[in-house]
Prior knowledge:
Shape: globular
Order of helices and strands: HEEEEEEHHE
Distance between the termini: 15 Å
Number of helices: 3
Number of strands: 7
Strand order of the largest sheet: 2-1-5-6-7-4-3
Amino acid sequence: MTDNAAAIEEGAKKSGILWLTLDRPRLAWHAWHDGAIYLVTGGGEQELPGLEALDQVHVTLRSKDNGARLVEFEAAVSVVDQAAAADAVAVLAKERLNARDSEHLTERWARDSTVLRLTPGG
């Protein structure tokens, strides 16, 4: 594992938020699972306009302790088949704080939201 890959994994595991460069810098919550960042958009969740149409996105991870920039990188963007990636969706749902319908969260996402995988260096 390269130093950059190790920094990305450590930063993504330690902080539940990151910055994406979209129409403007956008703060997003996420989960790290199986070597990638997973996040959800739409359907009453965070709005990340245009992300699912991108092939790549610029990601910035900051320190949970002091907000200092830890690492920046490009990540490949892919839409997740939520049924096929149920384990990743479950990890993401566990990170979703204060959901109004936590017991039916994954069903709502499957119906109304898009789950995305950001693969560093992709």
